[in-house]
Design goal:
Strand 4, helix 4 and strand 5 form a beta-alpha-beta unit. By secondary structure, this protein is of the alpha/beta class. Helix content is 42%, strand content 21%. The chain has 2 domains: 122 residues, Ribonuclease H-like superfamily/Ribonuclease H (Nucleotidyltransferase, domain 5); 53 residues, no CATH class. Helix 6 crosses helix 7. It is globular. It has 7 helices and 7 strands. InterPro entries: Ribonucl_H, RNaseH-like_sf, RNaseH_sf. This is Exonuclease domain-containing protein. It comes from marine sediment metagenome. GO terms for molecular function: 3'-5' exonuclease activity; nucleic acid binding.
Length: 183
Amino acid sequence: MATLFFDTETSDKTRRGEGPGPRQPHIVQLAAVLVDEGTEGSMCALVRPDGWRVSPGAERVHGISTEQATAEGVPIREAIGLFHEMASRADTLVAHNIEFDRLVVLSEYKRLGMEHPFKGKREFCTMKAATDIVRLPGRYGYKWPTLQEAYRHFTGGEFDGAHDALADVRACRVIYEAIREPG
C-alpha cells in the first residue's frame, strides 16, 4: 500500500468559500514523499511564477520571494508532472491540513487543464487527526495544532526548516506514523 505525503507553499491565502480554480493562490513550492513497501521516493520543486507574484504575507511565512521563485523555479507543468507521477501510484494521500493543500493542488491541475489523480484515494489529515491527541486549548474546545505543535507533541522536539515544503512533508510523516502506531 503506497502512501503519498505532500505539502505546498503558496503565493497567498486561499479564497474561502471557493473551490479549485483560477482565483486560488498559486503553488510556490511543492514537495512529496511516496512510501511504498519500504521504498521511498521524493520530489521538491520551486515553481517559477507565470505572471503572478508572491504576496508579502506569504513571503513572510515561507521566505520565498517572487524573485527567488523566478530565478530558481521550474514551470508549474514540470512540478505537477513530477507530483502526478507519484500521486498516481499512491493509495493514500496524507497532509497536515489536507483540505488546504488539496485545494491549491487541484487549482493548479484545473489551470493546466489536466485530470488530477486524487479520485478514489484515501485521504488522511494529520492536523485533524492530531487535534484530540495533542489537546491544545482553543476558543471552542481543542484547536487544530500547527505542524510544529503536533511534531513537538509526538517527538518532544522541534523540526528544522518549518515552511519549507519538503521539511514539512517529513515532519508530517513522523506525525502520521506516531498517530498510526501509538506506543
